[in-house]
Design brief:
Layout: E1 2-4, H1 11-20, H2 28-47, E2 52-58, E3 63-69, E4 74-79, H3 83-92, E5 97-107, E6 113-121, E7 129-133, E8 136-137, H4 141-150, E9 158-167, H5 168-177, E10 183-191, E11 193-194, E12 200-201, H6 207-212
Helix pairs in contact: 1-2, 2-3
Length: 217
Protein backbone atom coordinates (compact mmCIF):
# COMPACT_ATOMS: atom_id res chain seq x y z
CA UNK A 1 0.00 0.00 0.00
CA UNK A 2 1.23 3.49 -0.86
CA UNK A 3 0.12 6.66 0.93
CA UNK A 4 1.03 9.94 -0.83
CA UNK A 5 0.47 12.78 1.63
CA UNK A 6 0.60 15.62 -0.91
CA UNK A 7 -2.76 14.44 -2.33
CA UNK A 8 -4.56 15.83 0.71
CA UNK A 9 -4.81 19.44 1.84
CA UNK A 10 -2.77 20.00 4.99
CA UNK A 11 0.20 21.93 6.35
CA UNK A 12 2.36 19.16 4.93
CA UNK A 13 2.09 20.90 1.54
CA UNK A 14 3.37 24.16 3.04
CA UNK A 15 6.39 22.47 4.62
CA UNK A 16 7.20 20.55 1.42
CA UNK A 17 6.94 23.77 -0.61
CA UNK A 18 9.49 25.41 1.69
CA UNK A 19 11.78 22.37 1.53
CA UNK A 20 11.75 22.55 -2.28
CA UNK A 21 12.23 26.34 -2.47
CA UNK A 22 15.87 27.11 -3.38
CA UNK A 23 15.69 30.53 -1.70
CA UNK A 24 14.46 29.14 1.62
CA UNK A 25 16.95 26.25 1.39
CA UNK A 26 19.79 28.67 2.14
CA UNK A 27 18.68 28.56 5.80
CA UNK A 28 19.90 25.12 6.88
CA UNK A 29 18.29 25.40 10.33
CA UNK A 30 14.89 26.03 8.76
CA UNK A 31 15.46 23.16 6.33
CA UNK A 32 16.21 20.78 9.22
CA UNK A 33 13.19 22.04 11.16
CA UNK A 34 10.88 21.48 8.22
CA UNK A 35 12.21 17.94 7.79
CA UNK A 36 11.49 17.39 11.48
CA UNK A 37 7.98 18.78 11.05
CA UNK A 38 7.15 16.47 8.15
CA UNK A 39 8.55 13.60 10.22
CA UNK A 40 5.98 14.45 12.90
CA UNK A 41 3.18 14.50 10.32
CA UNK A 42 4.27 11.12 8.98
CA UNK A 43 4.29 9.78 12.55
CA UNK A 44 0.74 10.96 13.13
CA UNK A 45 -0.48 9.41 9.88
CA UNK A 46 1.30 6.11 10.55
CA UNK A 47 -0.16 5.98 14.05
CA UNK A 48 -3.64 5.66 12.52
CA UNK A 49 -2.60 2.33 10.96
CA UNK A 50 -1.21 0.80 14.16
CA UNK A 51 -2.81 -1.38 16.83
CA UNK A 52 -4.28 0.04 20.05
CA UNK A 53 -5.43 -1.36 23.37
CA UNK A 54 -7.65 0.00 26.10
CA UNK A 55 -6.19 1.41 29.28
CA UNK A 56 -7.88 2.84 32.33
CA UNK A 57 -6.52 6.27 33.20
CA UNK A 58 -7.18 7.71 36.64
CA UNK A 59 -7.87 11.42 36.58
CA UNK A 60 -8.23 13.76 39.54
CA UNK A 61 -12.01 13.31 39.31
CA UNK A 62 -12.49 9.74 38.18
CA UNK A 63 -11.48 7.07 35.68
CA UNK A 64 -11.41 7.23 31.90
CA UNK A 65 -10.94 4.33 29.48
CA UNK A 66 -8.61 5.35 26.66
CA UNK A 67 -7.14 3.70 23.58
CA UNK A 68 -3.33 3.72 23.74
CA UNK A 69 -0.69 2.46 21.33
CA UNK A 70 -0.13 -1.27 21.72
CA UNK A 71 3.24 -1.61 19.99
CA UNK A 72 6.53 0.12 20.72
CA UNK A 73 8.07 0.55 17.27
CA UNK A 74 11.68 0.60 16.19
CA UNK A 75 12.55 3.81 14.32
CA UNK A 76 15.40 3.41 11.83
CA UNK A 77 17.04 5.98 9.61
CA UNK A 78 19.84 6.29 7.08
CA UNK A 79 22.69 8.60 8.06
CA UNK A 80 23.04 11.53 7.64
CA UNK A 81 20.14 13.03 5.70
CA UNK A 82 17.55 11.01 7.61
CA UNK A 83 18.34 12.44 11.03
CA UNK A 84 15.88 15.40 11.10
CA UNK A 85 12.93 13.28 9.93
CA UNK A 86 13.95 10.61 12.43
CA UNK A 87 13.75 13.21 15.19
CA UNK A 88 10.27 14.21 14.03
CA UNK A 89 9.11 10.59 14.18
CA UNK A 90 10.75 10.21 17.58
CA UNK A 91 8.96 13.31 18.87
CA UNK A 92 5.67 11.43 18.47
CA UNK A 93 6.77 7.82 19.03
CA UNK A 94 8.68 8.94 22.11
CA UNK A 95 9.07 5.48 23.67
CA UNK A 96 10.41 3.90 20.47
CA UNK A 97 13.81 2.27 20.10
CA UNK A 98 16.14 3.59 17.40
CA UNK A 99 18.31 2.03 14.72
CA UNK A 100 20.86 3.72 12.47
CA UNK A 101 22.37 2.66 9.16
CA UNK A 102 25.23 4.31 7.28
CA UNK A 103 24.49 3.71 3.59
CA UNK A 104 25.72 5.95 0.80
CA UNK A 105 26.47 6.14 -2.90
CA UNK A 106 30.06 5.34 -3.88
CA UNK A 107 30.66 6.93 -7.27
CA UNK A 108 33.03 5.61 -9.91
CA UNK A 109 34.86 7.58 -12.59
CA UNK A 110 32.10 6.92 -15.14
CA UNK A 111 29.55 8.42 -12.69
CA UNK A 112 27.99 5.04 -11.99
CA UNK A 113 27.65 4.23 -8.32
CA UNK A 114 27.19 1.37 -5.91
CA UNK A 115 25.68 1.40 -2.42
CA UNK A 116 28.23 1.12 0.38
CA UNK A 117 27.46 0.43 4.03
CA UNK A 118 29.88 1.29 6.83
CA UNK A 119 27.84 0.98 10.00
CA UNK A 120 24.64 -0.41 11.48
CA UNK A 121 23.30 -0.15 15.03
CA UNK A 122 19.96 -1.72 15.83
CA UNK A 123 17.96 -3.36 18.62
CA UNK A 124 16.11 -6.58 17.88
CA UNK A 125 13.36 -5.99 15.32
CA UNK A 126 11.88 -9.49 15.48
CA UNK A 127 8.07 -9.22 15.51
CA UNK A 128 8.36 -5.45 15.99
CA UNK A 129 6.96 -2.59 13.93
CA UNK A 130 9.87 -1.16 11.93
CA UNK A 131 9.57 2.44 10.70
CA UNK A 132 12.51 3.41 8.48
CA UNK A 133 12.91 6.91 7.09
CA UNK A 134 15.03 8.72 4.53
CA UNK A 135 14.10 11.96 2.74
CA UNK A 136 14.72 10.70 -0.81
CA UNK A 137 13.80 7.43 -2.53
CA UNK A 138 15.52 7.81 -5.90
CA UNK A 139 16.71 4.45 -7.27
CA UNK A 140 15.69 2.68 -4.06
CA UNK A 141 19.20 1.29 -3.66
CA UNK A 142 20.08 2.78 -0.26
CA UNK A 143 16.68 2.03 1.25
CA UNK A 144 16.63 -1.56 -0.03
CA UNK A 145 20.17 -2.22 1.19
CA UNK A 146 19.41 -0.73 4.60
CA UNK A 147 16.25 -2.77 5.13
CA UNK A 148 18.00 -5.96 4.01
CA UNK A 149 20.79 -5.28 6.50
CA UNK A 150 18.33 -4.69 9.33
CA UNK A 151 16.27 -7.83 8.68
CA UNK A 152 19.30 -10.11 8.62
CA UNK A 153 18.94 -10.38 12.41
CA UNK A 154 15.16 -10.64 12.63
CA UNK A 155 11.97 -10.18 10.66
CA UNK A 156 9.60 -7.39 11.75
CA UNK A 157 5.86 -7.95 11.68
CA UNK A 158 5.40 -4.83 9.54
CA UNK A 159 7.70 -2.32 7.82
CA UNK A 160 6.69 1.30 7.31
CA UNK A 161 8.96 2.97 4.74
CA UNK A 162 8.88 6.77 5.04
CA UNK A 163 10.26 9.08 2.33
CA UNK A 164 9.62 12.75 1.70
CA UNK A 165 10.07 12.41 -2.08
CA UNK A 166 10.16 9.30 -4.26
CA UNK A 167 10.56 8.42 -7.91
CA UNK A 168 8.50 5.80 -9.71
CA UNK A 169 11.74 3.85 -10.23
CA UNK A 170 12.49 3.85 -6.50
CA UNK A 171 9.00 2.65 -5.64
CA UNK A 172 9.29 -0.14 -8.22
CA UNK A 173 12.60 -1.22 -6.68
CA UNK A 174 11.02 -1.50 -3.23
CA UNK A 175 8.15 -3.56 -4.65
CA UNK A 176 10.61 -5.97 -6.31
CA UNK A 177 12.78 -6.34 -3.22
CA UNK A 178 10.14 -6.76 -0.52
CA UNK A 179 7.17 -8.43 -2.17
CA UNK A 180 7.29 -11.21 0.44
CA UNK A 181 7.15 -8.83 3.42
CA UNK A 182 4.38 -6.84 5.05
CA UNK A 183 5.20 -3.23 4.28
CA UNK A 184 3.59 0.15 3.67
CA UNK A 185 5.10 3.07 1.75
CA UNK A 186 4.51 6.56 3.13
CA UNK A 187 5.55 9.14 0.54
CA UNK A 188 5.28 12.92 0.69
CA UNK A 189 5.14 13.29 -3.10
CA UNK A 190 6.04 11.16 -6.10
CA UNK A 191 8.18 12.86 -8.79
CA UNK A 192 8.38 11.19 -12.19
CA UNK A 193 11.89 11.93 -13.39
CA UNK A 194 15.45 10.90 -12.46
CA UNK A 195 18.54 12.61 -13.89
CA UNK A 196 21.48 10.69 -15.38
CA UNK A 197 23.06 10.86 -11.91
CA UNK A 198 19.88 9.43 -10.34
CA UNK A 199 18.68 12.63 -8.68
CA UNK A 200 14.92 13.16 -8.39
CA UNK A 201 13.43 15.94 -10.55
CA UNK A 202 12.04 18.41 -9.58
CA UNK A 203 13.07 17.02 -6.18
CA UNK A 204 14.81 19.41 -3.85
CA UNK A 205 18.54 18.72 -4.17
CA UNK A 206 20.86 16.90 -1.77
CA UNK A 207 18.94 16.75 1.53
CA UNK A 208 22.03 15.89 3.56
CA UNK A 209 24.02 18.85 2.23
CA UNK A 210 21.08 21.22 2.66
CA UNK A 211 20.57 20.11 6.26
CA UNK A 212 24.21 19.87 7.39
CA UNK A 213 26.47 21.51 4.81
CA UNK A 214 28.40 20.30 1.79
CA UNK A 215 30.70 17.29 2.16
CA UNK A 216 33.89 16.19 0.42
CA UNK A 217 33.32 13.71 -2.41
Amino acid sequence: MIHELIKGNSLFSQFLAELRDKNIQTDSMRFRKNLERVGEIFAYEISKAMEYEQKEVITSLGTSTMNVLKDRPVLATILRAGMPMHQGLLNFFDSADSAFVSAYRKYKKNENFSIKMDYISSPSITDRILIISDPMLATGGSMSASIKALIQNGVPKHIHIVCLLASEEGIAAIKRSFSLYNYTLWIGAIDDELTAKAYIVPGLGDAGDLAYGAKLD
